[in-house]
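All the exercises in this workshop are built on plain-text protein records. There is nothing in a record beyond a sequence line and a structure line. A learned vocabulary of local backbone shapes supplies the integers on the structure line. The question running through the whole workshop is how a given chain folds. Here is such a record, shown just as it appears in the course material:

***
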Amino acid sequence: MSSHFYSMLSRMKYIERWALMRNTQKENLSEHSLETAFIAHALAVIKNRRLGGNVNAERVALIAMFHDTTEILTGDLPTPIKYYSDDIRNVYKKIETVAGTQLTELLPEDLREDFINIYNCNDEEINKIIKAADKISALIKCVCEKNAGNNEFLAAEKATRASIEGMRLPEADIFLAEFMESFTQPLDSITLK
């Protein structure tokens, strides 16, 4: 019997993000998820190496890689709608849970439990790191758009930066301090010599 799980995941590249915004560079869900996984891994490593943490960085990266796969079924709901009210936010979380269940049901039965554990991560520390990584990925998008002369993202950049700072997550603050400036630089300034 054929399983359709990975075929569905491959459709992440068709889900465009920032649908309400004029973009100089389109971003799809697949690109965003990989970037979020890279950043989440970095945040976990920073937490462990510099802040005395003990979080499984590889698990953080894995869960981050899958963090938005439910949007294959739900689409990327624009932020102003998704966070308009607690009612909408709670209903959308329920929809995401149903979508996660539908995706895992596409797997062969003997593999499902491993993926259910990815979709239903209840580790608050891991979830905070992934949420910060998700926001940092959005901030990178805003900064890159602004650097390309697109003022459409100015308000989003300000709100996203404030949201990250409001998380009071030291590993996120360290990432911003040490890595964000590089995203404002041209390629000639960041290449290896």
About this structure: The chain has one domain: 5-182. The longest helix spans residues 124-147.
